Amino acid sequence: MIVFIYQFDWRYALVLIVTLAAYFLFTTIATNHRIAIRRQMNESDTDANQKAIDSLLNYETVKYFSAEQREAERYDRSMIHYEKASTHSYVSLSILNAGQTVIYIIGVTVMMVMCVYDIEAGRNSIGDFVLINALMIQLSQPLNFMGTFYREVRQAIIDIETMFSILAKSPEISDKSNAQDLRVESAEIVFEDVYFHYDPARPILKGVSFVAPPGKTIAIVGPSGAGKSTISRLMFRFYEPQSGRITIDGQNIQDVTQTSLRAVIGMVPQDTVLFNDTIGYNIRYGRWDAHDDEVREAARSAQIDRFIESLPGGYDAQVGERGLKLSGGEKQRVAIARTMLKGPPILILDEATSALDSYTEHEIQEALRRVAKGRTTLVIAHRLSTVVEADEILFLDQGRIIERGRHEELIARNGLYAGMWNRQRQAAEARAKLLEAEKEVNL
């Protein structure tokens, strides 16, 4: 079109080139200016959604402190920021569209005025006027399409830049290129001089070494913050030790695939999180191809079958968001049933009975002993009464194994383990006396 108009009259071609240059320059500058506005709008929208989800998931805490109004105001403040950013975005879009239209109209007007003067001077005819006007009208649609396409592409890139930033991140823990599947025969676990820290200024494990023989139960006890749960995270390769190594049947877990490693380890965590689905679904999550009879047998072993059968929906009863319809003990028994159904050669019990009462705890301990029979088991516990029958007890303090041995040996040694055992026993006796006193008063 520019060549055709240039052959017609170079002045018209010059006006057309200036119009197109101004159009594209304005579109580029205005669109780039809108990027920051769009990013602010997306951040405000994300912030508002996060606050809403956070308040809903933690609704019990909100109600404990009568903070409904405060949470509503907190959400409203985020929405105000979003509304302002959204309004600014649409205003800038209107300015962009209006500016493009004005530039185009100015260009058309200049060319029409020039043509009128040329007609008056006898250089052009009425047909030339109609021709130039028709050509400029045909040019408007491609210009609008190109401007809209450029704007939408840039806007889409901003809308998904968070996803791009996530995809650009490399996983902290990844399998080696020559990683093989873990082959488990006897399930012997060995920690060799393992050092680990989340922050270099705060070391967690300092040269931890121990052996969990095949089919034996190793208990790891100690005060809070000693690094007990970190050992389970290292076993699952959620993190890698800074030095030392962890082996299963002589195979360094850093040299095997994460999928095969996690397939042979069963975990009963202290903080159980359930899916917002049925109880049967959550139990079956341990082994998805299990039959219904196996699911029920796992529930019986975890001492939760009677509770499930008492529910209106039975195994199809919904547990709610993060299992909020179940008590802490019920959720923990579901987690135990899930792990029992998986039936792995290695078990890790991280305070597996911490949310249970004494009577249920005794029954669950019996069930856990049955399922742990013939399996290598790591028991992470704070209550020492749950590990007295362990084949070996490791007392972990400040990242180091201070004492090790069977329960009787550690008591006879009269060290840190014996001190913690005596304190817990005294606390238990005091609670028992208090309960007896309350019964006598009630009588």
Summarize the structure.
With 443 residues, the chain is an alpha/beta fold. It contains 15 helices and ten strands. The chain folds into two domains: 2-167, Up-down Bundle (ABC transporter transmembrane region fold); 189-438, Rossmann fold.
CATH superfamily (homologous) name of the largest domain: P-loop containing nucleotide triphosphate hydrolases
Q: What's the story with the biggest beta sheet?
A: 6 strands, mixed
**What is the rounded distance between the termini?**
104 Å
Let me know the number of strands.
10
Output the number of helix runs.
15
CATH architectural grouping of the largest domain: 3-Layer(aba) Sandwich
Spatially, the strands of the biggest sheet line up as: 6-7-8-3-9-10
What number of structural domains do the residues give? 2
Q: What percentage of residues falls in helices of 4 or more residues?
A: 55-70%
The CATH C-level class name of the largest domain: Alpha Beta
Overall geometry: elongated
